[in-house]
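Record 1 of the preview.
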Amino acid sequence: MGRMILVGIIMGLSTIFSCNKLDEDIAPKVNTESVARLEDGSYKISASLTFSGNEEITQHGVCWSVSGMPDISGPATQLGPLNQPGEFTSTISGLDGNMTYIARAYVVANSIPYYGNQKAFMVEENPENRVTDIDGNIYRTVKIGVQTWMVENLKVTKYPDGTPILHLADHDAWYDMTRESMAYCWYDNLLVYGHNHGALYTWKAAVNGQDSCDFNPSEVQGVCPDGWHIPSDSEWKQLELHLGMSEEELDMEDWRGPGIGGKLKLAGTNDWLSPNTGATGETGFNARPSGFRHGSADFLGRTTTTRFWTSTKPGYSYAWFRQLDYDNSSIGRNFEGVYRGHSVRCVKDE
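->
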């Protein structure tokens, strides 16, 4: 009896081991071969399916990440079904410069993803997609439609001719400013916020004392580097129209264009307060919640709002601006007192 039990146990274990080995043998096998940079700045990932297994492969492609193990729950290409073993390639673009990425090929069979080995690669910064201000700060840029925008808020402390901009931190001094005052500050008077979110400028400082302009393109260089300028209200409308806003909404005040603001906001809740409604980051504009400085000199809205000056004024004391909020997917068009501190994004002269 004891021998029969022992034989049964051995046979059972043999069956288990055989099943495990069988599963390994029938699972698809995919390999990430190489990564190559193309002339347009995109990256081609070459891979191969060396064994398709016994299930139909319903999806395949490449996934990538800047941290951790990439998988198909994050950024990934989808190339569709794969009928037989062989080589395949996938091209990815829009990656941030000066960053190290990890990529790996994958296939999906019976709703289960199977991954290849990892390949790490460094994305070079394209000099044509950068601009440097007079302080030496370097900004990434992105082309949206026919316009080229800075991807980060301006943080320059001098005008293009080298003249310093008045740095005004004091609460009472900011409160006492007039409509003609030209000054900037850092949010909460902390330079660390300036590094990540840019400076907050009065309107007169942003345009460097120039008059209101609503031309497209604007003729107001202001604090922007040579070859760049402060966008007018009309230039913002051109961007909004390109992103899908209706012509009927362009001249409206307050919130317009559901979903348009979400396309401009940086996705996720690392910077923006949750829920960061509608944020997709698909344009690469990467707006962050930089807050603003009120005419009362109080700092408001970091993590919940960002506001960008235009070069256009509807009246002596006010200027048009654009607003993005954490709980709204639209984009706000309003005017406020020129002595407030708002962010600046520059547009390339083209």
